[in-house]
Design goal:
mainly alpha
């Protein structure tokens, strides 16, 4: 469950990052071009995903620990997105493989 929530945070932050006017698009994947066409809709979708993740964290862990887990995850994922996006490491297949790997680890450990 934690892996899925952090994955939702990653998608939400990535949407906000790609709709920023300061981002220089080094690659033009199909989904990036679609996001560039309608940035306001994707910015709202990213915000909704971040709020959903925060709400589920709070429901599962309580107010302070849920908000702390969400905030620490947001800062960590945000740093990774800003650092790794220019190098094109955050391709959809890479993110899905990492998500499946960490989900398997979470389920079996």
């Amino acid at each position: 469950m934690i892996t899925t929530l952090y994955f939702i945070i990653l998608i939400g932050f990535q949407l906000w990052y790609l709709t920023s006017k300061q981002v220089k698009y080094a690659y033009t994947a199909a989904y990036v071009l679609n996001i560039k066409k309608n940035p306001n809709g994707y910015r709202i979708a990213g915000g909704i995903l971040l709020l959903i993740a925060a709400a589920i964290f709070v429901m599962r862990m309580g107010w302070m620990s849920g908000l702390s887990a969400w905030l620490v995850g947001l800062m960590g994922i945000g740093g990774l997105v800003v650092m790794l996006a220019p190098f094109q490491y955050l391709r959809p297949i890479t993110v899905i493989i990492l998500y499946i790997f960490f989900l398997i680890l979470e389920l079996f450990i």
